[in-house]
Design goal:
There is one protein chain. By secondary structure, the chain is α/β, with parallel strands linked by helices. It is about 40% helix and about 15% strand. The strands form 3 sheets. Strands 4-10-9-8-7-5-6 form a 7-stranded mixed sheet, sandwiched between helices. Strand 5, helix 7 and strand 6 form a beta-alpha-beta unit. Helix 4 runs antiparallel to helix 12, helix 13 runs parallel beside helix 15 and helix 14 packs across helix 15. The longest helix has 24 residues.
Length: about 425
């Protein structure tokens, strides 16, 4: 045990104790694999604005926002107000609400490829739903996706995160348009859809090379397959989503996270023609239901979250992220540690390597990133164990200065461990 871990354990005794209780009722003591880390995860008590607090009373600057979903920070007052009004009228009912219509309208107005929306309850459900639509429309079974891509906890997609083909899933390397083109030429008659993230998230915030997304979309269409763009994480990068940045028009767009304002949410959107697959007025339409689909509380929160994520706010977060990335690199140079960062708008992933690795979930710098994660927590910074950072609209420039100072201390402490 090094000094970083000793300090972490010393400051989080209540989290350690509650973790033992959690392990007696949940495998591993939690219900999200992504949030687990050693020696044990913290237990958070509350969040407000740009901060979260654990049950030991320690305050942290929130640099992950529940894995990018809290784009306006914790307990954002306009969202709290909207939700309070909504829930006073009932948390769910078996009919649409005005908030549901308003949120769907906002999404159709913002994202050029989206003319109709169908709500569900998570990004995972959105992926499952998109696959179901593609298989219904094409009569095919196979899915083609990027190696180390992630489209939710659905078996046909999770094999991609593991980097291996599945029974109904084929993989090609992200950024290699020729590889996708070859598979679509050889097996196109079996492929229902190509699923891609415009920026790989779990694999390290990897941006696409110029023209890659458009080339794959064209190849998919030549093969008679649908092109599905997973914007669950990247919708925050532009008012029109990442598809506006990279100039591509998908057949279906997966959405989630920020469109729920902190509540469980998922959605797919596309053209009127494709989405008519769900229209119950049409004979043989696709059956899709869900007790909490488009519930009024989620939609009320989502309306505020989407409406208040203006391009001006997006641009500010992007500038702040650029500065943070530069200052982290400067601190690493001063500490004489290898360091690199991948950046896409307000999202970044850091590596204690001289060059960022190819898209992968494996970490050659596992010990260093583990030490940094604990050191960051010790210095009051809450980020993802794998080094993922997502800024929010409530991060002020003054707070950014504090983040930079605290992160520099954490980096220096990693260098001192010698691991």
């Amino acid at each position: 045990m090094n000094s970083i871990e000793e300090r972490y354990r010393g400051a989080s005794a209540k989290s350690a104790e509650l973790g033992k209780q959690a392990e007696r009722v949940m495998p591993g003591g939690d219900t999200r694999t992504t949030t687990f880390y050693r020696p044990y995860p913290l237990t958070l008590a509350r969040g407000e604005g740009a901060f979260v607090w654990d049950i030991d009373g320690n305050r942290y600057i929130d640099l992950i926002g529940n894995y990018t979903s809290l784009v306006h920070g914790n307990a954002y007052p306009p969202i709290v107000e909207a939700v309070s009004k909504a829930i006073a009228g009932g948390s769910a009912w078996p009919a649409r609400s005005e908030a549901q219509i308003e949120l769907a309208t906002l999404l159709c107005e913002r994202v050029a490829s989206v003319e109709r929306v169908r709500f569900c309850n998570s990004g995972t459900e959105a992926g499952m739903l998109a696959a179901q639509v593609a298989r219904r429309l094409t009569g095919r079974k196979l899915i083609l996706m990027a190696r180390y891509g992630y489209h939710g906890s659905y078996e046909d997609f999770e094999v991609g995160l593991a980097g291996q083909d599945g029974e109904r899933t084929m993989l090609a390397d992200f950024g290699e348009a020729t590889a996708f083109d070859a598979l679509l030429s050889e097996r196109g008659s079996e492929i229902a859809a190509v699923f891609l993230e415009p920026v790989l998230g779990s694999a390290g915030v990897v941006e696409p090379p110029p023209g890659f997304l458009a080339r794959v979309a064209e190849a998919a269409h030549r093969a008679g397959a649908l092109f599905v763009l997973d914007e669950v994480i990247t919708l925050r990068l532009n008012e029109g989503g990442a598809q506006k940045i990279y100039d591509v028009r998908p057949d279906l767009t997966m959405m989630g996270k920020i469109i729920g304002g902190g509540f469980p949410v998922g959605a797919i959107g596309g053209s009127e023609e494709v989405m008519s697959t769900f229209d119950p007025r049409n004979r043989g339409s696709l059956w899709h239901s869900g007790t909490f689909n488009g519930n009024p509380v989620t939609c009320a929160a989502g309306v505020v979250s989407v409406r208040e994520l203006t391009q001006a706010r997006i641009d500010k977060m992007n500038r702040q992220a650029q500065r943070l990335a530069e200052e982290l690199a400067r601190a690493a140079r001063q500490a004489e540690l290898p360091f690199s960062v991948r950046l896409a708008g307000s999202l970044m992933n850091i590596f204690f390597l001289s060059e960022p690795p190819a898209a992968t979930i494996a970490r050659e710098d596992a010990r260093a990133i583990g030490n940094f994660h604990l050191a960051a927590l010790n210095n009051g910074l809450f980020l993802a164990p794998r080094g993922l950072i997502a800024l929010s609209t409530v991060t002020s420039d003054e707070l950014l200065n504090e983040i930079i100072e605290r992160a520099a201390k954490a980096i220096a402490e990693v260098a001192q461990t010698g691991d």
